[in-house]
Design a protein that fits this description.
By secondary structure, this protein is of the alpha/beta class. It is 23% helix and 29% strand. The chain binds flavin-adenine dinucleotide.
């Protein structure tokens, strides 16, 4: 159990800048995100697209903005807990909050900042009843250790970049080679980089990769192990593809998920906050960025940044009760310079 001043749920631009603002007020933070990397929508949805409305930065890509936010928060070294979804948020008798993730990480925090955006980005599941019991042993949603596929009949499912890249990568392995690699997609059209599709087709032509067009409809087991995938073909027949490992690349989709279960006031799936501290209906729990709503709310990164400042000052009254927290300028405050390591 980690005891901390603050836990930030979400490492998008709002969560990252929140950690910076908390740092200026000497409030330590842990940041949790369901994605295996920070950046939220900027990284997941538009890493290479330009943003033109960040004050003082005439143009930067989603990735550049995230890199800059990470660089800015570095002096405060927030601890990142990535690839974990916050599932539980509960007030304890002593007034602090118990926060738990789906991988078992637990925190006791004085304050919580929900920066969950449009929800946790989680992998779109392969919808075959009962298949979930193989997750982690024979069913994989994330790129991982090639060892997991060594010597196995692997089926890669999907038709976008991630799927084509995964199939090509597995078919080209020189060590820990799978016994066979099959790319399964519902049609013979791929939304992936042209070069990658060419590489895939070359491997198919060379017999190193099998391409099957069809939809998975069921699976077969041998003992307690997954043994094959049943696939409906466009011709109307069903074929059985031997499979002892599945790599599903159906992309990610945001899920509001547990945020909706924390007994906080919601309006159209958004957390209702005041505009003085961006506090939710539960004192000590703040919400910033796309996840919150208030009169006039605009889902813009700039607006999220403003919300982070006021939420940090709001949290200071909880973390340092009775202590005056004056506003100081980063330009002139020697205390802030010391905190930022720029003395
Ligand atoms: C294509 C596109 C272009 C855009 N262009 C602009 C622009 O030019 N200018 C602008 O200002 N805005 C733009 N936006 C909007 C901007 O990206 C969002 O306003 C911003 O990302 C919101 O930041 P956030 O941190 O609130 O949420 P997000 O960026 O959505 O990040 C939230 C994070 O929280 C995580 N999370 C959620 N729930 C949990 C949980 N329970 N446990 C763990 N983690 C969780 C998610 O995985 C995610 O990483 C654009 C958006 C899109 C889609």
């Amino acid at each position: 159990m980690t005891e901390t001043d603050a836990v930030i749920v979400g490492a998008g631009p709002a969560g990252l800048f929140q950690a910076f603002q908390l740092g200026l007020l000497e409030i330590n933070a842990h940041i949790v995100d369901a994605l295996p990397y920070p950046g939220g929508q900027c990284i997941e949805l538009y890493p290479d697209k330009p943003i033109y409305d960040i004050p003082g930065l005439p143009v930067c890509t989603g990735r550049e903005l995230v890199d800059r936010l990470l660089q800015q928060v570095r002096p405060f070294s927030p601890t990142f807990h990535l690839g974990q979804q916050v599932s539980l948020l509960q007030r304890q008798e002593d007034g602090r909050f118990l926060i738990e993730t789906n991988t078992g990480t637990r925190f006791l925090a004085k304050t919580v900042f929900i920066a969950a955006g449009v929800g946790a980005f989680v992998a779109r599941a392969l919808k075959l009843e009962g298949i979930e019991r193989f997750e982690g042993s024979q069913l994989f949603y994330r790129a991982g250790d090639a060892q997991a596929f060594a010597g196995r009949d692997v089926i890669v499912l999907g038709g976008e970049d991630e799927a084509v890249e995964a199939a090509v990568g597995l078919a080209q392995l020189s060590d820990n080679r799978p016994r066979s690699v099959t790319l399964l997609h519902r049609r013979d059209v791929f939304q992936a980089e042209a070069q990658r599709v060419d590489d895939m087709r070359a491997l198919v032509a060379a017999g190193a990769l099998r391409l099957v067009i069809g939809q998975p409809t069921g699976f077969e087991v041998a003992g307690d192990r997954l043994a094959a995938l049943q696939v409906a073909t466009p011709e109307g027949s069903t074929v059985s593809l031997p499979a002892d490992a599945l790599r599903v690349c159906y992309g990610l989709s945001p899920k509001l998920g547990p945020v909706a279960d924390w007994n906080l006031a919601l309006e159209r799936k958004q957390l209702v906050v005041d505009t003085e501290q961006f506090q939710t209906s539960e004192p000590g729990i703040f919400a910033i960025g796309d996840i919150n709503t208030y009169p006039g709310k605009k889902k813009l990164i700039l607006c999220a940044f403003h919300e982070c400042v006021l939420a940090a000052f709001g949290a200071a009254t909880v973390v340092f009760p009775g202590k005056a927290v004056p506003l100081q300028y980063t330009t002139t405050s020697t205390r802030l310079h010391a905190l930022l390591g720029v003395r």
